[in-house]
Amino acid sequence: MNIGYMEPIDYVTLSLFFLIIIGIGIWSKRTVQSSEDFYVGGGKVPWWLSGISHHVSGYSGVVFVGYAGIAYAQGTAIYFWWAINIALAMSISAVTIVPRWPRLRQALGIESPTEYLRVRYNTPTQMLVAISGIVVKLLDVGAKWASLGILLYGFTGLPIWLGIILGSMASMIYVSIGGIMADLLTDFVQFMVTLLAGLFLFFSVLMHLGDYGLTLGTVAQALPEGHLTIFNAGRGQGSVSWTLLYFFVIFFSYSGGTWNLAARFISTSDDKQAKKAAFLSSALYVIWPLILFFPMWCGPIIFPGLTQAEAEASLYASLAGKFLPVGLVGLVLAAMFAQTMSMCNSDVNTISAVITRDVLPKFFPAIETLEGKKSLYVARLTTVLFTACTVIVGLMNEQFGGVTGMILSWFAALLGPTAIPLLLGLLPIFKHCDSKAAIASILAGLGVFVATKMGLKLETDIELIAPLFTSFVVFAAVGLVNQYVLKKEVPSDVEQLMNKLGSK
Predict the structure, then answer these.
(1) pLDDT per residue over 27-66, tens digit each?
(2) What are the tens digits of pLDDT across the range 346-375?
(3) Which DSSP letter does residue 12 get?
(4) Domains along the chain?
(5) Which of 298, 319, 320 lies closest to 227, judged by CA?
């Protein structure tokens, strides 16, 4: 495959896209008067916008880079271990975890997902979760910036570092100006752009199947052996065991363990709106990936003989260059940028909230009392600084195992230790799990992760889940000891919080 398919009109299309999203950021500025507006949209975000944003924020250039390579090399299994897993997880979370996020905002006035931990546990626990999560997100967002650079290289031939810089700078401009409302509105625009580009490429590939002597009914027979399957063989990525275990990573991530996704629910007006948003996101994960992945699944027929790494580097760009007319190639690249920028902006906005609301006040107490324009200034400053740090990590992505390695190995493994006390702390059944349970679970999970990186050999599926499972077991065990052995009473403020969050 060749690198670089962009014509002058494609660059015009891409440039217009960047101007539009920056314009949305500037327009959104009028709605932002305080940190509450900046981080949670004043708690007035409608369910349909929250649901679409939650869905879009689950995508990034990783889908079109790392996952494109997996779809090319392994086939349809990725739809089941990724998309269907998310759909199932969100359906369950919609009636368990999700409604509690807006209730938290109503009860405590939170603006960040970790802000409630001070009441639920104590300040040291809040700080440990916050700092650990910030480190995890440095890797996660850095990987997504790297995927942007790879996408730009595939479409234009420009250096990867340039794509990282361009994408991050455009994102930083509009999200630092308009906050979460700019993020949500651009998510919607980006979804529509991606929908248009994805549908056009889907139908283009479909109509050209005849060039290869195929129809929709016969294309499955032309795919490599094992590509049309629900699960891959063995215990590696996409296997039965791996998929089932990965479900738990997905559940804790998309329910709010990935903090930017929690922010989508916190920003809704009430629990009913949040629940509807979660179900909408779930439904989209069932439908949209089928259209999105179809051209990638046809990749071995159209571009045979590629390695997975080669497919990661240029498959989607090559498909667009081969099947789309001039002008629409730029739209596809804009769509890829859109998905990635959406997720990164969501992350940056939420992490800025955590830094501003949870971390900085412990070192500079005066920050906690800031209101209006002054609180907004701090919010924007932390947004810019955190973005700069993620760019540095993105430029160093190969040192962390590349894009796919950073997402599936580092982020997935590190998510659990921070997500367990954050999410399970919302549920009354775990109300006996105190700060000691939370801290012990975090340290135990991180310890297992470090051990695997230091040489502890585990099966791929076990390694994926080991940190999260360890954190869960330790968290629950300490809670049981508190309840049945030590007979500890649940603190009154925790009982009150559980009552406000509800039993359902």
Answers:
(1) 777 767 767 677 777 778 899 999 998 888 777 656 666 7
(2) 778 778 888 888 888 888 888 777 776 777
(3) H
(4) 8-501 (1.20.1730.10)
(5) 298
